[in-house]
Amino acid sequence: MTFTFALRTHAPQAASPLLQCAALCYRIRGSKLQLLLITSRSGRRWTLPKGWPMPGRSMAESAAREAWEEAGVRGRLQGGCAGSYIYRKRHSPHPHMAMVFPLEVTGLDKRFPERGQRKRRWLSRRRAAALVHEPDLARLLLQFDPDELGSTPILTFGPHSPDQGGPSGFSS
Hints:
The chain is an alpha+beta fold. The protein is built from three helices and twelve strands; from the N terminus they run ββββαββββααββββ. The chain has helices at residues 59-71, 125-131, 135-143, and strands at residues 18-29, 32-39, 46-47, 50-51, 73-78, 83-88, 95-108, 120-123, 153-157, 160-161, 166-167, 170-171. The chain is globular.
């Protein structure tokens, strides 16, 4: 199957998915892998932090920024794209494709732009997969293994920038 991608700034073709970037936020507690899910703004669905690609940032960097804005996540991007999934937004006639980038969580901020609009929850792979509605995302969550990513972070997200009130950028 071949997809044609349209960025949000372009008029999409009828069946072209709109491209977004998502962060698969994870941590290891003891020997257990935990994945972070957040609610949509409506609070009706559990999902990954995600958003539109940002000018001047890679897809992975945009995903990390969205993770901070939506969930207060600070961390290190690990490996490349872990996969993708297609979903539909309630108020959009167009399909959306989210490219998913693993983000090892090193901290959670209490203050972030969308606090109060979303809930966040740490879950096992199986529990996270059971909560999401998209079958491809559920499969990706079940199959995710941070041991297969390698040990060298691609980018570290942070530190805070006093003029922006949040993570300022990335370092390699």
